[in-house]
Design brief:
The protein is mainly alpha-helical.
Length: 110
């Protein structure tokens, strides 16, 4: 059986729970949400580098770097959601359906 995205997110979450610093549940939730901000900062750094926006550093990153960092933000966010919710997959899917439902005109196939 092929692992789904949520199976993989679960594996990352389990690994973090087992191998990370042992914190209280409240701290674990807080730190996983804060990690999203750290990952976002890495996207910003890669974007600046891809644009060559810092004259001191020049073109230090590629657009591939930006895409990889965006993936890291998405994964980190899903791990944080899974940490906060016993049914993260359903919550995410429900929210995504809600957001798609706001697009005009709505489509039945989504």
């Amino acid at each position: 059986m092929e692992a789904t995205t949520w199976d993989r997110i679960g594996r990352i979450q389990e690994w973090l729970d087992a191998e990370g610093v042992q914190n209280s549940e409240a701290d674990r939730r807080l730190l996983r949400v804060l990690k999203i901000g750290e990952e976002y900062g890495e996207v910003a750094e890669a974007l600046h580098g891809a644009l060559g926006a810092n004259p001191r550093k020049g073109a230090s990153h590629s657009w591939e770097d930006v895409r990889k960092e965006l993936c890291d933000v998405a994964v980190t966010t899903l791990v944080a959601l899974a940490t906060l919710s016993p049914d993260a997959e359903k919550e995410f899917d429900d929210r995504l359906r809600h957001l798609v439902g706001r697009i005009s005109p709505p489509r039945e196939d989504i």
